[in-house]
Amino acid sequence: MNTPSPQKMAATVPDETAVSDARQAARDAQSVDALRETLSSFEGCNLRFGARSTVFADGNPQSDIMFIGEAPGRDEDRQGLPFVGRAGQLLDKMLAAIDLDRTGCYITNMIPWRPPGNRSPTPLEIELCRPFIERHVELVEPKIVVFLGNVSTKALLGTTRGILSLRGTWSEYRPNNDTTLPALPTLHPAYLLRNPAQKKLSWQDFLSIRDRLDRISA
Ligand code: URA
Fold first, then answer.
1. Which residue range is the domain that position 59 belongs to?
2. Span 53-57, average pLDDT
3. Residues 6 or more apart from 194 whose CB is under 8 A from it?
4. How many angstroms is it from 118 CA to the middle of ligand 1?
5. Which CATH number fits the domain that encloses residue 193?
6. So what's the pLDDT on residue 171?
7. Does ligand 1 have an atom closer than 6 angstroms to the CB of 83?
């Protein structure tokens, strides 16, 4: 369980200071392991105090592809790993359908702590977590990025357009001024569990991912 230090609980840190602390902490991390450590001890985002785990990532950081979801749910919070509940099981099936598993891809979330009751993260929580996911992408250096659902798509592509209009179209993601990565927004597996008829759209997106990966390794 993440527990706050007494000093942090007592202090009220202004939002801009908290965001700039997050940026500095993320920038200082020089490896994926260091970033994991930094996030585990970061106390600038209140979400961590209601969560059991800091859910960092799963899969292979050497792989060409990085999936970025929204935030851990109950199962992920309990196990400390992303996408291990029902949505994660569906994601695993979708990956298997294009010959991928967790040894051949890397999976993380926009937000590493479970929001209480699985509510949507607030704009401030997203801003506090953004420096960490940007640094995470920089350090992993994937060849392509896939955004699972609205939250990571909107936050990282900087758009207000919804996932249903953006999905399936490759776009460019810039984790910093020197890097541009091909990025595909697609539907979140939890949305597909609620709307199974939309799986055909995801299938198109996953075929497009397979095609990109094949072209990268050709
Ligand atoms: N939904 C997400 O976005 N991420 C998880 O890890 C689990 C469910």
1. 6-217
2. 98
3. none
4. 10
5. 3.40.470.10
6. 97
7. yes
